[in-house]
Design brief:
It is built from 2 helices and no strands. The chain is mostly helical and about 40 residues long. It has one domain. The radius of gyration is 11 Å and the shape is flat.
């Protein structure tokens, strides 16, 4: 559960074995907010 609350934090990675920077959900959340929406 602790990992779920942090997934929208920039550069957070729940699994260090996966590739990527951990910024994708942060960007998606910000874009949704700009368009009046919300990701949760």
């Amino acid at each position: 559960m602790q990992q779920q609350s942090q997934i929208f934090t920039a550069f957070y990675q729940a699994d260090t074995n996966s590739q990527g920077t951990g910024i994708g959900l942060t960007i998606a959340s910000s874009l949704a907010k700009l368009m009046g929406g919300k990701l949760n």
